[in-house]
């Protein structure tokens, strides 16, 4: 039989298998058996033909789907943070970028609003907090707020608070993402006002370094958690070519993956704030080393690695399932 005729005879079945149309276990087993027979025939009569690697790829995929699912449950957590979270992050990179830009814009708004109107700081941070900070500055301990209480209890409280806040930001996304965006904007303006409070006392650089020791991780996680809420709202507002409720289900699933994936970031950020930020008078080189390490991790895990992983996945699929032509 000519290769072209062999392809024409079986092409519909192969495409059905490639598209994953069959869910029944018996049907999958039957498909696998027939593919093995097809592969043996192709290797015998068309060893150098394009159809041979194509069939081999289909058979390999079914084999992996059958046997990889037998891995231990412990591997699921590794897979979650190694593959699921980065690929979901990559899928929504544009929304994350939008959230990041919004945060930067309203941080600047908060900073300059405080510059133009001295009462603005008290409006967004409260009189009690501003009075305490000014008192600490006068006493020569401007960041004394980070030295209050037991380090362990502080870490635990901050960790729980940030995790709860992240889920709240995500959950608010169900209302078309608007409350989530509003919360993100308010958080950015508060931080801008907070930074100006120290800038006005010639402590701007010191405040930036001190805050970012834990803030690089914490603020990044807050921005990405807000992005998860926006993903949820967008999935309902703009379902694309699929049904609105199906789109919402996908958005909910992606959002949960993102927020749950941020838990280790919140844990480490709270640890830094509870145990390390209190030593803000540490050598500058050590502070900069911590900032560089945190920034490098954020850039790698949330930007570089997801893109590389996605490209690798696309290339693997193209190599495993090449298009065939009669």
From TrEMBL:
Keywords recorded for this protein, A-Z: Membrane, Transmembrane, Transmembrane helix
Bilayer-crossing regions: 94-115, 152-171, 192-213, 219-237, 258-276, 282-303
Pfam families xrefs: SpoIIM
Record-given protein name: Stage II sporulation protein M
């Amino acid at each position: 039989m000519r290769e072209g005729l062999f392809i024409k005879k079986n092409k519909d079945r192969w495409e059905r298998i490639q598209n994953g149309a069959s869910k029944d276990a018996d049907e999958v087993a039957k498909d696998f058996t027939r593919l093995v027979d097809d592969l043996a025939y192709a290797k015998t009569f068309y060893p150098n033909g394009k159809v041979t690697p194509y069939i081999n790829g289909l058979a390999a995929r079914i084999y992996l789907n059958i046997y990889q699912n037998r891995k231990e449950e412990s591997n699921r957590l590794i897979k979650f943070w190694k593959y699921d979270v980065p690929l979901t992050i990559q899928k929504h990179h544009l929304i994350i970028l939008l959230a990041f830009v919004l945060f930067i814009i309203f941080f600047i708004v908060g900073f300059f609003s405080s510059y133009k109107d001295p009462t603005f700081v008290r409006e967004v941070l409260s009189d009690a907090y501003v009075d305490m900070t000014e008192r600490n500055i006068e006493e020569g301990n401007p960041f004394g707020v980070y030295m209050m209480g037991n380090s362990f209890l502080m870490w635990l409280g901050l960790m729980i608070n940030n995790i709860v806040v992240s889920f709240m930001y995500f959950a608010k996304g169900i209302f078309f993402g608007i409350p989530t965006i509003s919360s993100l904007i308010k958080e950015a303006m508060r931080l801008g006002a907070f930074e100006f409070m120290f800038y006005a006392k010639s402590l701007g650089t010191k405040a930036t370094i001190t805050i970012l020791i834990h803030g690089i991780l914490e603020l990044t996680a807050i921005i990405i958690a807000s992005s998860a809420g926006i993903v949820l709202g967008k999935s309902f507002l703009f379902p694309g070519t699929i049904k609105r409720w199906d789109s919402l289900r996908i958005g909910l699933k992606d959002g949960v993956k993102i927020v749950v994936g941020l838990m280790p970031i919140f844990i480490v950020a709270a640890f830094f704030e509870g145990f390390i930020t209190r030593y803000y008078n540490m050598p500058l080189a050590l502070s900069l080393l911590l900032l560089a390490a945190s920034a490098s991790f954020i850039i790698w895990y949330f930007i570089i690695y997801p893109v590389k992983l996605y490209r690798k996945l696309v290339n693997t699929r193209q190599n495993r399932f090449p298009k065939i032509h009669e």
